[in-house]
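Throughout our pipeline, every protein is held as a single compact record rather than as scattered files. The record that follows is passed on verbatim for readers who wish to inspect the format.
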Amino acid sequence: MGIFYGLETSASALTSQRLVMDVISNNIANATTTRTAEGGPFKRQIALLMERSPEGGTSVGNGSKVVDIVQDIAPPRMVYLPGHPDANQDGYVAMPDIEIVREMVDLTIASRSYQANVTAFNEGKQMILKALELGK
């Protein structure tokens, strides 16, 4: 464990949480997308986080990394919109299963985690600078 261990841990969490926020933002932006290149409505995406362990082992405090971005398996919501171009014969449109409130809660959690890691990074940096001053 080196002097920069704490900074590396916070930096990995910053990178992970930024990607999580990007995925959530993409979900919110596509909450009403009924037609994609793959066909059907947009599928909600979820960033899967894992503890970062450069040595291959597991121990607390190694930071985090995004290991994958997967699609939610929930079926689409069927909404009655008979005039919509993607409506079926009964007037229902397959809409993404994205709840804006849930996405906003997840975004708030990721944002607070990001802010906490910015604070931890800055405090770690200040401690290293103070240690260097003592060494003069």
